[in-house]
Specification:
Number of strands: 11
Distance between the termini: 48 Å
Structural class: alpha+beta
Largest sheet: 5 strands, antiparallel
Strand content: 5-15%
Shape: globular
Length: 327
């Protein structure tokens, strides 16, 4: 972050005692506690939606979540001389959730479920222009990109080891992507979510700070109206990939969530299809296609090989999940 951005703190009614750099941000010790100041990456309209969500959750629960600080003029963003917006938020002293500690992970999932219980904003006028996210439309976009990259690879005369291995696996994962998308579209009527249920949008361990025995939720910039399993899926997928798709870990995380918030059959069905979609394969393809191809890192091949090696365990996990919840 540009050090000149620190001067923008003069726009706020706070006394800054000292500042220090964090990850892509500036942490500030102030008369109102420790705050975090960073560049705002969302749309300018989104910040009002984000603030409404945060205030609503605080009003309806005792969850520990961030707050957005207003400028002296009552705005949520402060612009630098180039028009780049910055945001000032409250900060929690703590450490990130340890994804190798199952008890902490279950605490995180329970916290998530409690957030979902109070994240219904249907009574707020701010939702009038907000449309629910449609996961099948997102998968359609991914599928178009997968087809485009497949054609690019097919037409390429000389291929690296990574590209050759990618082509060998391509049809298998592309066919799964297309099948999952079509089946998900068929079940769309089951996913008529209650309007106004808002997801965190980026629920992963980086945005969960453990402090004094509680999980603090931060970085709501990607909050979006969607089925609540969006958040659960993101958190689960990371852990399942790291644990070679352990059925035990999956069961423990879902059980912890259900302790706080009941999951309907529609929830389970959508979670099943989100987990079934080969998102990791799409991410590898996306990263490859949008990066320089003159030199391809060996890590790309390592990630692809790991994905392929785990596929048998992933399919076994999905079959078990399907039987367990009678989908």
């Amino acid at each position: 972050m540009n050090d000149r951005a620190v001067s923008l703190l003069d726009n706020y009614d706070i006394e800054v005692l000292r500042t220090w750099k964090g990850r892509g941000a500036i942490l500030c010790e102030t008369s109102r506690g420790t705050l975090i100041f960073k560049e705002y990456s969302g749309s300018r309209d989104k910040v009002y939606f984000q603030d409404a969500l945060l205030n609503h959750i605080k009003e309806k629960s005792d969850l520990q979540i961030e707050s957005i600080m207003k400028t002296k003029e009552g705005t949520f963003l402060a612009d630098d001389h180039e028009g780049t917006p910055y945001i000032l938020k409250t900060w929690f002293e703590g450490r990130e959730c340890n994804i190798r500690d199952m008890e902490e992970c279950k605490m995180a999932v329970r916290t998530l479920a409690r957030m979902h219980l109070v994240s219904n904003l249907s009574e707020l006028d701010i939702l009038n222009s907000k449309m629910p996210f449609q996961i099948d439309k997102e998968f359609d976009k991914h599928n178009k990109e997968l087809r485009r990259v497949k054609k690019f690879l097919k037409d390429k005369s000389q291929k690296s080891d990574f590209e050759l291995r990618l082509m060998q696996a391509y049809d298998y994962f592309l066919n799964i992507a297309l099948q999952v998308t079509e089946e998900l579209r068929f079940f769309t009527n089951e996913f008529k979510d209650e309007r106004g249920l808002v997801c965190h949008g980026d629920f992963q361990y980086h945005n969960l700070l453990l402090s004094q025995g509680k999980m603090n939720l931060i970085n709501f910039e990607k909050c979006v109206i969607d089925n609540p399993v969006r958040d659960l899926y993101l958190f689960m997928r990371k852990l399942l990939e790291k644990s070679n798709w352990s059925e035990l870990i999956g069961d423990e995380l879902i059980s912890a969530y259900i302790e706080e918030r009941k999951m309907t059959k529609a929830d389970h069905t959508q979670l099943f299809y989100r987990l079934s979609y080969p998102e990791k394969f799409w991410k590898i393809v996306n990263f490859y296609y949008n990066s320089g191809k003159a030199w391809i890192s060996g890590k790309n091949l390592e990630k692809l090989e790991k994905l392929i090696d785990q596929e048998k365990e992933k399919q076994a996990f999905l079959e078990d999940y399907k039987k367990k919840y009678e989908l």
